[in-house]
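Case study 2.
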Amino acid sequence: MSESAFYILLALKEPRHGYGIILHVEEITDGRIRLGPGTIYGTLSRFEKDGLIQPIEETDRRKTYLITLRGRELLKAELQRLEELYKNGTSDGGIMP
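Prediction:
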């Protein structure tokens, strides 16, 4: 999973619309990640199609999304993968002290 996809899914643990996701991700990454409209809306479309998120409200052309159980399971699996990467990178023989 790409870093931007991870953060989009993570942001949807609470209901948010596209622009709200952009602002949240920028805030929690201290501005390191700035999602563009093409990235955010393409990813939201794919996630919705894959059943990872669902729209819960639409007002003034603004859809609000929320992560689904399937999306939470994928997010959990990705976190476990990242923990394994960190563990392997810092353990005996790893490059980090």
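The beta strands are 16-17, 53-59, 62-67.
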